[in-house]
Amino acid sequence: MSDELLGLTAAEQAARIEAGDVSAGEVFDYWRGRAAGDEVGSYLWVADETPDDAGTLPPIAVKDLFCVGGVPSMAGSRILDGYRPPYTATSVRNLQDAGVRVLGKTNQDEFAMGSSNENSGFGPVQNPWDRTRVPGGSSGGSAAAVAAGTAPWAIGTDTGGSIRQPASLCGIVGMKPTYGAVSRYGMIAFASSLDQCGPLTRDVTDAAILLGHLQGRDPCDSTSLGIPGGVPLPTAERLDGVHFGIWGMEEEGLEPGVAERVKATLAQIEELGGSVEKIELPHAKYGIPAYYVIAPAEASANLARYDGVRYGKRSGNGDLTSLYEQTRHDGFGEEVRRRIMIGTYALSSGYYEAYYGTAQKVRTKIAEDLSAAFAKVDFVVSPTSATVAFKLGERTQDPLAMYLSDYFTVPMPLAGIPAISIPCGLSEGLPVGFQIAGPAFSEARILDTAHALEKSIGFDGVPVG
Amino acid sequence: MNELNLEGVEPTSHVVDLTNVLREDMPRPSLDRETALEQAPDATDTGFRVPSPGAS
Q: Which of A31, A72, A299, A352 is paired with A458 by a 20 to 30 Å CA distance?
């Protein structure tokens, strides 16, 4: 039975548990063994024993930045080395209430700042498809664990693409829900007006199941709303009458092999009865500059709390000023320090309007572009990433090249809308992601559409056993 | 971004149309002191300990 589990989706494993073919404890045991044998650096912590109450569904790999009571939760940062929070994030608690147990905590870019997982304070993650390449980021550990078969499913967070881009680079499904769909309580904050929790899974059905359990209004997060009507299981097999708008195919830097797979997917949409037209998002190209003002600005405020007083690491030579300075110098990595400085500058008196104010207006223009698109089409589609997984080290010396990794994924969080990435084939032997975005709270329709397309694409999602 | 004409454009500070989400002002349990101090690098029985701000 055990090795059979590797070939099953989480939903299929849940069905075996329910049928009594295997117990939830045996399933947890199996995945604990798989996770302990992880060879690509996906995990920062793996459960050391199977809980007495192993729940009713397969266990989950959780991105490190989710607080889980009594379990190391460090957001991939040395400044929180050894931190074990006294409470559990609402999203994780919702999963626990649904019968899902925590299998382990996954590696990530420090405080979710990065697109390659190379900014982790605990070392990089390798892409299971090619270990000389990055898994994407910032939820790189979660994506790699699902792709490598060391977790049945996982959750991550997406601020500018941190679920969808690693899902794309690792050949799995990743979804960023509408802002407010899932509570942010207990998620170690990066950029609070953008951060959103979502699933990373082998297929679209697993994503729908997880999202259904994750979503909900939470009194502890006043920006949370849940998803009206919940998340029904996707069933669609046809796309008759569904209208898609494709954008970004002329972007500089879009790899020919990626463009080819995306075009083939558009042809499949038409075969399934859908229609495709080219659309323009005139302000999409301003997404990256706006994002790299707004996100660092919010991060600079959010990360002020790491001062070595109440939790985490403390450095210094005995006086209070050096405690603050040295703790933050020693604890934060280079990219986090860079963004705190950019963000602090962007918010400083006299510059606020020129930087943060301008970026917020650009944000409005991007949201208006998308609203205008949804007046014409049901969904906006594009490549998830302009490239397949790049080499470890390839973009670390060039922050701007790294920032452009999120070109296709940044407009959606800026507008607060949901989007999914599904694998649509290989280029140069590496996975390509296809992104489907819809209006706010259209999760059920996006999942249905992705389900129909996934069946038609027939991507073989398990690379390494 | 400076090449755009943004005159009269409203800034987006928040994407969800929500205003003033309030709850009843009801007391509820919170972390006890011992738990709250558990993760501190340095603490007394009653609070976090740091070097005196007056010391140089």
A: A31
